[in-house]
Every structure is written in structure tokens, then in C-alpha cells.
Amino acid sequence: MNASFSPATAFINARLVDPEAGVILDGGVLVEDGVIVEAGARVTGANVGARTQVIDCAGDIVCPGLIDMSAFVGEPGATHRETIATASMAAAAGGVTTLLARPDTNPPVDGAAAVDYLMRRARDKAVVRVLPVAALTRGLHGKEIAEIGSLHDAGAVAFSNGPHSVGSSQVMRRALTYARDFGALVIHHAEDLELARAGVMNEGEFASRLGLPGVPAEAEAIVLDRDMRLVALTLAGNENGARYHSPLVSTRLSLDIIARAKAAGLPVTCGASINHLTLNETDVGDYRTFLKIAPPLRAEDERVALVEALASGLIDVIVSDHNPQDVEAKRVPFSEAEYGAVGLETMLAAGLRLVNAGQVSLPRLIAAMTIRPAQIVGLPQGRLTPGAPADLIRFDPDEPFVVDAAKLRSRAKNTPFDAARLAGVVKTTMVAGRLAPV
Amino acid sequence: MQTAFPHRHLLGIDGLTRPEIEALLDMAEEAVEVSRRVDKKRSILSGRTQINLFFEASTRTQASFELAGKRLGADVMNMSVATSSVSKGETLIDTAVTLNAMRPDVIVVRHQHSGAVHLLARKVSCSVVNAGDGSHEHPTQALLDALTIRRNKGHISGLVVAICGDVLHSRVARSNIILLTQMGARVRVVAPSTLLPPGIDRMGVEVHRTMESGLRDADIVMMLRLQRERMDGAFVPSLKEYARFFGLDEAKLAYAKPDALVMHPGPMNRGVEIDTAVADGPRSLITQQVEMGVAVRMAVLEALSYNLPNG
Questions:
Q1: What is the CA radius of gyration of chain B?
Q2: What gap in Å lies between CA B244 and CA B156, rounded to an integer?
Q3: Residue B3 has what pLDDT?
Q4: Which of B113, B118, B136 shows the shortest C-beta gap to A336?
Q5: CB B151 within 8 A of CB B179
Q6: A326: chain B residues, CB-CB within 8 Å
Q7: Is the previous residue joined to A103 through a cis bond, with omega within 30 degrees of 0?
Q8: Chain B contact for A334, CB < 8 A?
Q9: In which band, very low, low, confident or very high, does the pLDDT at A6 lie, cut at 50, 70 and 90?
Q10: Would you call A335 and B114 a contact, using CB atoms and an 8 Å cutoff?
Q11: What are the extents of the domains in chain A?
Q12: A227, A321, A398, A404: which is the annotated catalytic residue?
């Protein structure tokens, strides 16, 4: 994505969602030179200059472009699953203007050269912003701390161990302590390696009926609880503790742990995937491998608890957890299938299900996909403030459509929402003041 | 007959109604008579092709399906994983599509992964019989167990059936729990908690952790095989300890009703889950189960054949 001159553009006759203020108001947004000049009721067709390109939104929603804190982009090493180009096309179509690329590529992003490579590929190939997340431990093996300082300087916006927890409490403690000194954000997937090893879906009656080994909620809670104690250690006697983000909470046990940590003043945030917020274990049905994800889809009461936590703000962020898998990785028996589902293109529409059901307000939903991730990662995007980058989207929250996997921009088509009836069509995606293809 | 069993496949007991199960058992009674004649050959499946596709070795189940198909006049081909191209990296679906192109009428599948038979069934145009998938289902085993019980007790409804041992990994247990509860039996599972699946209490069974409580007043004691790799420390401390607390011997069988009968799907670990004196004793139905196995599989193949395209 090239930053270059772009003409002034005005979105008018829109319903603006300001996720920072948590309000919806009628008005428009004026954009110039890639930044927001003004947003509000005063931006109308009559007020903008003659040379301004005008987009009449006719009552559609306009809000900051979505920021997805977890997507797998396939580069390097897995371009049969996804490329930066295809991931970014999928993102643009789904209203995602910034995505954080997971480091569990082949080879993993654990050196400054790899970060630099990703940033150059993103600059040349992506139609949205693609920001690298670097490995927390060397090779993602969980044994030695990666060069967090150098990676940070090279442009890594956060550090993660990919889909695997750091098993050693000692390594995790040192990684957190060291990351703290650089003010680096640690994103850690919590799952006890031993307890979760054989499991392929949520532990319980449904898994037992299918004859599949399960993963208990405790597999997540044990590691998350350990991590909270380690974060507290990094805070003891220091001004700042390690910034810790739990990307994929899936159970009430985990929510309780996060709530306690936040109440204790730890610098902790959490996210949930759109899949865990809108689907449950019974969607696995007759061994549908597209519903095999990690952590597994949980029971309905867990899903309801997640939605309530999203509404209350306990869950800060929604991610797509976009994980493209090629056909061969999914056309096998359930136990053998790879984990993961694509999600960049359907995250917003799936999330709007919660709004339409009256469970979450629209500003809250949008905040979890914009301002909250921006605040956590430390990005200037995700807001309508004058001076903020002009990353904006326009969508009709009520326009219905049927998800057609074959038409997804993503290279892989493993969507759990195939043939689902959703509402919410993205009509315009703007990145740095320029329109991206939707 | 066409309406008695309106299914293209037999993938599990789950989804079958009680009348459908009873119809299969009634057909199996006839097959028992046929199998006891000198001339066992019938022609219902004459001209039909049956492929036994076993991704996991099982001498007795494969032999049982082979005999069942041959007694009904089908041409039966056996394919086992060791001799197939699956070992060369061919996927399950490729194998299914390849075999399907040879135009079989029925494929009997055994696979080590739960759900694999369902996956295969979606890719073929013939009938599919699940001969055991992972820890999921083994429907013909449950049917043969039901037939054996019904012939010996006259009925299934109201009987107390204790299913004992490695319920966690057992497809036999799952299919039997579904079938026997469907038929009105009172089903108990008896095992150390490490060998019980989570949520088992919500499957309509009583859960017991000792043989003494689990076998009390039982009409049928159904033992499950404990796989060797699960004996040493992983799920139970040792073979010896397992045999002591959960192995069926005369002393533990005494907790059950005086006329209680003993079953085992085989192959047995003698001296582990079952004592030789019990296995070979007068109350054992184990060899009868094997005979009923052929009859039930004949019934299943016959029932499915009525739904196959003709002409």
C-alpha cells in the first residue's frame, strides 16, 4: 500500500458511528491528504469544496475502518493458503483496514529481516495496512526469548507465540519482563499444552456423543491464570507492568480471570473471535471440519457469557482469527483436520447479528473492532478525530446477503458461515484517504 | 419391507427409531435360521458387489461381514489398509471416489477416526455400512448384542444392562447405550472415572464407579475390551490394578442377578477385563454373539439392498 497524494473526499448523509464517544450521529466525514479533517453534522454536501469528491452515503453507516488483531496472511511459506495480496483484498471487502499478521509462518517471523520483509511485501502488495506481529520466542519454540528489542525497532507492533502457549513459566516470566522494558505488547494464546493435546473440540456431552476427545475450559484458564500472576510479578516494584493481551478467550472461567486481573489494575486486555461470539459447539454438527478451530467452539452458555462480556466492555476486542486452510487440510476426518476458519470478510456482518439481536449496541461492536484494538496496539487509526488517518468504511447494516464461500476473496474458502444469511454489506473501504476495492 | 428401514446407509444407531431397530432384529432372526442350514446361500444380493474397506485391522468383524455378504449372494472384496494405496498417501476421499468408480453396491468401512465413515459416505453413490469409526459408533455390534439379549431374555425393555470398562474409547459402548436406551433397557456404565467420557451422565445412563454397585441386580453384564496402550499409567495405573477392581470374575459376577448373562464384543483380554472361568462359563453369551453377528450383518445388508437402485 503506497502512501501518496489523494484528493479530498467527503462522505455525506451518513450515520456516523464514533466508537471513541460511543455514539451514532447524522453527518459526514471530510478527508484530505489521507487524514480526517472533520467529522460531524457540519460536513454536508453544501459545505464541502467544489473540487472535493463527494460520496453520498444515503443513510449508510460510516465509521473508522476495522482493525483486526489476528489474521494469518500466508507469507512467508504458506502462499497456497493465503497471500498478503489476497488477505488484504478479503480484508478490504470486509471493511478491515488494518490487520495484524500472525508470526507463525514458515519460517516464523522471529528476526528483524523477516519483519522488514513483511513490511515491504505489505507496502507492495496489500490494499490495506498489514502490520507484523513478531515471535515472542525464537522459532516460536517457547524456549528462548526472541530479539524483542530489535524486532520492535524493525516495526513489529506486538509479540505473540502464535497458536501455542509458552509452556515454561520461567520463559514466559522472562519474556514478559523483557518485553515490559520496551513497552512491547505481548499477545499470548492460553492453552495448556498437555491438557489440550488430544482434544479437537469442546469437552462435554456433545464431543462424547461424537466420539471426539475434548478440550476442557480449564486448559485455557490454567495458563491464563498463570500468566496473570506473571504479569503481576512484572508490575511488582515497577512503574509499569508487561502489557498483556489474551487474544481468544472462550469461556466464563477465562472471563472471571480477566475481570479479576483488570480489577487488580494489571495492564491486561482480552479479545474474542467472531466465531466464539456467534457460533457454538453444536454447529460442528456432523463432523464439519470448517468449524474446527482453536480454542474450540464452546457450549451455548459460554457463548452467551462472551456476548455479555463484550457488551459490558470486559472483552475489549473482536478478532476475525482469520486462518485460511486449503481444501486438503479440511477434507479429512475431523481429528485429522487442521484448525482454523477464514473470517476477514464476514467478521462485521457476523458481528451485526449481535446488534440485530439487541445484545450489543452498534457503537460497542464497532469500538471492539476499531478504537479498542487501536488503543491496545498503540495505533492512530480507529477513530474519527481530526488528524487521524483517513481509514474509513461505509456499510449498510440492514442489507441482507447469503455467504457464498466460492466468492470469498480469500485464497482459502474455509468459512464456517457458508450459506449463512447475514446482513451488513460493506460498500466503501478507504485506507489512508484512498478507496480500496470491496 | 421397503419402508421398514428407509435409509441408504447405516452410519450409526443414532437416528434409528425403535420400529426400525426391531425390523432389523426380526430380519436377523430369519438370517439365523438360514445360517444354520446346510445350504446357507440366498440370492438377495446376487449380482451385487460389496467392498469391505478396513483402515483398521479387525479379523472377526471383516470375516463376519464377508460371510454375511456371501451368504446373501454378493460378490465380496476385502481391502485392508496394509495392501491399499492409503499407505502411499492417498486421502480417504480419494480412496472413496476411486472405489465408488468401480460401482460397488455397498461399502463396509472400518476407520480409526470418529466421523471418517460419515465423510466417506458423503462422497459415494452406493450404500455405506459403518463397521466402526474411532470412538464414535459400531452399529452392527450393538444390533448383534441386542439380538443376542432378545433371544436369551425374550425382551430388552426393562432389563438392567451394565456396560463395564473402557467406555471412554469405546464405540461399542456408545452404540449400545443409544440402542438399549431406545429399546427401553436400564443402562448402567461401570468404570473408573478416567475411562468415562465427560457428560456421560446426560446420555440416559446410570454411572457407577464400582463393580459391586454397578452389577447389583443386573440382567446383562457387558464387558468392554481395554486396549493395551491404555493400561499402563495413562488411564489406569496398571493391568493388575485394573483386573483387581474392574475385571469380571465369579466373585464380582455374584453381585448381579443369579440368571445374569455375560457378554463381550471380543477380542478378549483374558485375565484383564474378564476371567477365563467367566468367559467360558455357562452364563457366557460370547460365542453366541459371534453367530448373531453374521445374522445381523445379513439383515443390515438385506435391508439396505431394498433401497438400492434396481435395473
A1: 19
A2: 30
A3: 58
A4: B113
A5: no
A6: none
A7: no
A8: yes
A9: low
A10: yes
A11: 64-384+413-420
A12: A321
A239 touching chain B per CB within 8 A: no
B137 to A332: CB separation less than 8 angstroms, yes or no: no
Of A205, A286, A332, the CB nearest to B199: A205
On the question of pLDDT at B4 being above 90, the answer is no
- On the question of pLDDT at B59 being above 70, the answer is yes
Q: Among A61, A72, A77, which residue's Cα sits nearest to residue A18?
A: A61
A78's grid cell: 504458506
DSSP chain B: -TTTS--S-B--STT--HHHHHHHHHHHHHHHHHHTSS-----TTTT-EEEEEESS--HHHHHHHHHHHHHTT-EEEEEEGGGSGGGGT--HHHHHHHHHHT--SEEEEEESSTTHHHHHHTT-SSEEEEEEETTTB-HHHHHHHHHHHHHHHS--TT-EEEEES--TT-HHHHHHHHHHHHTT-EEEEE--GGGS-TTGGGTT-EEESSHHHHHTT-SEEEE-PPPGGGTTTTSSS-HHHHHHHH-B-HHHHTTS-TT-EEE--S---BTTTB-HHHHTSTTB-HHHHHHHHHHHHHHHHHHHHTTS---
pLDDT in tens, A206-217: 999 999 999 999
Chains A, B: CB pairs < 8 Å: 71
Picking from B115, B198, B200, the nearest residue to A287 by CB comes out as: B115
| Cβ–Cβ gap A212/B115 under 8 Å | yes
Tell me the longest C-alpha to C-alpha distance in chain B: 59
**A117: its cell numbers:** 520483509
CB distance B115–A208 less than 8 Å? no
pLDDT > 90 in chain B, percent = 86
- Which chain B positions have a beta carbon within 8 Å of A205's beta carbon? 198-200, 202-203
Which chain B residues have a beta carbon less than 8 Å from that of A209?
14, 174, 199, 203
**How far B132 CA sits from the closest chain A CA (Å)?**
11
Neighbour count for residue B3 (Cβ, 10 Å): 10
* Long-range contact set of residues B279-284: C-beta below 8 Å, sequence gap at least 24: B281/B250, B283/B253, B283/B259
Q: What Rg do the C-alpha atoms of chain A give, in angstroms?
A: 21
| Interval A61-71: pLDDT, tens | 999 999 999 99
> What pLDDT score does B225 carry?
95
CB-CB under 8 Å, A286 with B118? yes
Find the distance separating the first CA and the last CA of chain A, reported in whole Å: 15
CB contact under 8 A, A211 and B119: no
Interchain CB contact of A282 with B (< 8 Å)? no
Instruction: Answer whether B113 sits within 8 Å of A334, measured CB to CB.
Output: yes
Grid cell at residue A92: 478490504
Question: By a Cβ cutoff of 8 Å, what residues of chain B touch chain A?
Answer: 14, 91-93, 111, 113-116, 118-119, 133-137, 171, 174, 197-200, 202-203
Among residues B170, B288, B276, the alpha carbon closest in space to that of B220 is found at B288
- According to DSSP, the β-strands at A421-431 and A392-402 are antiparallel
Handedness of CA B52, B34, B9, B114 (dihedral sign): negative
Residue B234's pLDDT is: 85
How far is Cα B294 from Cα B28, in angstroms, rounded to an integer? 9
Cβ-contact B190, B163 below 8 angstroms: yes
A68 is catalytic: no
Quote the CA–CA distance of B109 and A236 in Å, as a whole number.
Answer: 60
| pLDDT band, very low/low/confident/very high, at B88 (cuts 50, 70, 90) | low
Per-residue pLDDT tens digits for A305-359: 999 999 999 999 999 999 999 999 999 999 999 999 999 999 999 999 999 999 9
pTM of the model as a whole:
0.93
Are A332 and B92 within 8 A, CB to CB?
A: yes
- Cβ of residue A212 closer than 8 Å to a chain B Cβ: yes
Q: What is the CATH number of domain A64-384+413-420?
A: 3.20.20.140
